Amino acid sequence: MLLTDKYADKIYGTITCYDLRVPTWAPFRLQFYMNGHKLLASKLQKKEITYRMHDNAFLEILDVEAAEKLSDRINPEDLHKVLDVFAKRYCPVPETLGLGYTWTVQQIECATDVMFKQPGDLEPLYDEIIRTAIFTVKPDNIATFLGQRITYNLKSRSNYTHV
Known about the structure:
Oligomer: single chain
Number of helices: 8
Largest sheet: 3 strands, antiparallel
Structural class: mainly alpha
Distance between the termini: 48 Å
Radius of gyration: 21 Å
Helix content: 40-55%
Number of strands: 5
């Protein structure tokens, strides 16, 4: 069962930045998923700070300093409070047995977003970035970036051999 909750919306913004998976079987392991970029986007929107995104990447933020302050205010302790409310509301069985939840991070992706004020600032680095990508990134990597897997049939057509 997949749930969203208006209580979390008050703290974390729109329902598009998270979802909660609630099991209907023991051991009642709750799973919470949150997208930090979408969370920041909802906070920027509330503060009426102009930004542009493509997929899950910020292409432009009008006030980068304000965005960084908003991002710094995303607090794990506040998130734990919201998750405790979710646990009581949607999965009360452990509490009736005198048990509780301990929140842990199973998977985390840290993004270091590098933004350039103007295209010319990237120019001195661009050739080296492209050269490095050409020599280090292989078709298997590219397929992975695109969410695909290269099968034997595709390998034979790609003229790719390990050196």
